[in-house]
Amino acid sequence: MGKDPDADALATRSGTLSYKMLNHRIGALAAWLQGQGVAKGDRVATWLSKTELACIMPLAAARAGLVHVPVNPLLKHAQVAYIVEDSGAKLLIGNAGRLKSLEGSDIDPDCELFEDKFVDNALESIAEPMVPSAATTDTDDLAAILYTSGSTGRPKGVMLSHANMTLGALSVAEYLKLAADDRTICVLPLSFDYGQNQLLSTWAAGGCAVPLDYLTPRDVMKACAREKITTLAAVPPLWVQLVEHEWPEEAVASMRRLTNSGGALTPTLVRQLRAIFGSGTDIYAMYGLTEAFRSTYLDPSLIDDNPTSMGTAIPFAEILVVDESGAVAGPDQAGELVHCGPLVAQGYWNDPERTAQRFKSAPDASHYRGTAVFSGDTVKRGADGLLYFVSRDDAMIKSSGNRISPTEIEEIAVESGLIAEAVALGVPDERLGHAIRLFVRPVKRGSETGAVTDQLRSYLKENLPNFMHPRDIVLLSEFPKNPNGKLDRNLLASMDVE
To answer: Where are the domains of the chain?
Structure first.
């Protein structure tokens, strides 16, 4: 896909780069990296906000034959030290404050630390930017290690090849129908596969990426208006915040598409987004795995009638629903989602045990064969061919002999109109095995606790069977989020609510 060398490619606080300038800066950074005594396949880490340097590093590291390890800027020094040591990173680039926080920590002494301003200045003196070369890269070579947020256990580093990242970008650009005149606002962390692909898919289409570090939802709205944004990607907790505000017309007028992953949209949220953006803006519901980048999307023409569907496989992906024997499940039969094809990652870095648990030989029904990702998510395929999420196996609540999907309880709670967000968890109970604890955030902040709880209990009794009624309803003014902006279920589970 040809690019206009003079078209805008990246708009950051430090200025706007054309595609010609972007290519030059990527080449300069690749040349600087190679001058730091690194060898092909070495890991280089960044711990940065959405600066120009953070945005160009994925492509610069790839051009230099290195492996990029992006670190979420919200992580603390202990988590960063673990990622640096586990990945064996040869260098870490961060701002002065972040690097100072590592003093006295267990950071690997073999990792050289560079301040971002030093690197920016060094790039100005690069006389010969590095050009792409088959000698430094191969499509099967490792290009990046993306670490999961590590809310439970140690973080896992997902290994992505050049082919994984390239085909992922091309796939998303195709089904989102991105074009050269699109402007994508990048609000998600660049260390998150969904966030990183906002850059890569936009560039694959020849559009302009606009990274944004925001403090409040209003910052996002203002940037959409100021930058005439056409594409906005978010996760459900951010959508919930965004629909609570009145959007100015200039922030809505240019919007062509909204995309969601990292959790399901609810029918209520779809209606709220439609009320703000109207029928002229496409809403894409998507489902993804870091281990396979992205798996499914729902054609936006179907979302109003099928707001809870995950859709069908994205380009370059094959999605199977298999039963416990490994056979393909029938229509409306629950089974495990298995992702096959060239988007499947290369496993977990330095972790053969956990790799073997998730990455296995593809089911016999696969056209791709090879290695597949077994997601651990239970889904079903309707008679219409659309996929529907049921639950994560490790999130299922087992109460009085019943296997209960927390998703179903959460969706009904939000549909009451009383609740903006909900999370259902199982808690130990001598009689039931597990009882249901429902955390909720009321639509009206400052609502009287007793009144909301009573109204919600009444609604749930009318709309859920007895065995799905929560024992406890806990009202929160804010829900805890993990570094990628998703609801942190593990932190909720550890809360003392007595």
So the answer is: 8-137, 183-392, 396-493
397-399/43-47 β-pairing: unpaired
Q: For 100, phi and psi rounded to 5 degrees?
A: -65, -35
Structure tokens at 457: 């209990």
For the beta carbon of residue 497, count every other beta carbon within 10 angstroms: 10
| pLDDT tens figures, 217-258 | 999 999 999 999 999 999 888 998 999 999 999 999 999 999
Burial class (CB in 10 A: 0-12, 13-18, 19+), 469: middle
Tokens representing residue 163 in the block: 């082919």
Query: Tokens 């808690």 correspond to what residue?
Result: 427
3-state DSSP assignment of residue 233: strand
The CATH T-level fold of domain 8-137 is Rossmann fold (3.40.50)
Helix pair angle (162-175, 193-204), 10° resolution: 70
CA 413 to chain centre: 25
Element (H, E) at 283: strand 282-287
Superfamily of domain 183-392: ANL, N-terminal domain (3.40.50.12780)
Q: Alpha helices of 64-158 — where are they, by DSSP H? A: 77-87, 96-101, 116-123
Cα 133 from chain centroid (whole Å): 30
The residues that bridge with 186 in the sheet, in sequence order, are: 211
For the structural domain made of 396-493, what CATH number should be given? 3.30.300.30
Matching fold, domains 183-392 and 396-493: no
Residue 184, burial from CB neighbour count under 10 angstroms (0-12, 13-18, 19+): buried
For residue 299, what are the contacts with CB-CB under 8 A and spacing of at least 6? Answer: 311, 312
Dist CA 54 CA 211 (whole Å): 10
pLDDT greater than 60 at residue 153: no
